[in-house]
Design brief:
By secondary structure, this protein is of the alpha+beta class. Helix content is 36%, strand content 24%. It has two helices and six strands; from the N terminus they run ββαββββα. The strands form three sheets. It has a two-stranded antiparallel ribbon. The protein has a two-stranded parallel sheet with strand order 3-4. A two-stranded antiparallel sheet has the order 5-6. A hairpin with a 2-residue loop joins β1 and β2. The protein is extended and about 55 Å long. The protein starts with 8 loop residues before the first strand and ends with a helix.
């Protein structure tokens, strides 16, 4: 039973890191059910103490704690990249280090 208007969970994974995008409340329940099924099938467990979420858009003022993980209100790092509420802020944080290192290397010439 696949209803595109319900349980919309998007997932990206690399090695043992997962990034999940949720855009509606029923998806939290669906995700929790999938995680429980995965844990039962594999014996692996989600480390909720190391897991973080970022409230964005219309959810930026939420204070509840779905999935019993840490929820941030400003930014999170995913695979070394900074994601924040502001596109510009994310851009600056991710590229300022690269540009700075590039400038230093160019000055060595």
């Amino acid at each position: 039973q696949n209803d595109p208007d319900r349980d919309s969970v998007k997932l990206m994974a690399y090695a043992d890191d997962m990034t999940i995008f949720i855009s509606d409340d029923p998806s939290f329940t669906a995700l929790n059910e999938e995680l429980e099924l995965y844990e039962k099938a594999t014996g692996a467990k989600l480390n909720r103490l190391k897991s973080v979420g970022l409230w964005l858009g219309q959810w930026d003022s939420r204070t509840d704690n779905p999935l019993s993980i840490q929820w941030q209100t400003s930014e999170v790092k995913i695979l070394g990249l900074c994601f924040s509420r502001s596109y510009y802020e994310s851009l600056v944080k991710n590229w300022s280090v690269v540009v700075s290192k590039l400038r230093m290397n160019l000055q060595k010439w």
